[in-house]
Amino acid sequence: MMKISDLQxxxxxxxxTGKRLGHLxxxxxxxxxxxxxxxxxxxxGKMMGFFGKDEEVIIPWTNIIKIGSDVILVKTxxxxxxxxxxxxxAPKPFIRTDKRE
Length: 101
Description:
This protein is mainly β. It has one helix and nine strands; from the N terminus they run αβββββββββ. A hairpin with a 5-residue loop joins strand 1 (11-14) and strand 2.
């Protein structure tokens, strides 16, 4: 078993490019099934968003390749963001700059 705080401490890396995407900031949960639908990653290079826009990247859970001891490898073949009107993911812009409440 793994705690969310354990996941938050790991770097998230795009397996295809080797680029560091950021750290886990939130999880999208399916309340009907209890399954994790996606990881939400803060990709802001700025500290806590004080000096610039926070950008969130949403990675569907099915795109998680490996969770290692200090890194999470993900595959991002198509950009996705969650659609609040649907329980599924739809292709949309890869980076979201607005914060969800």
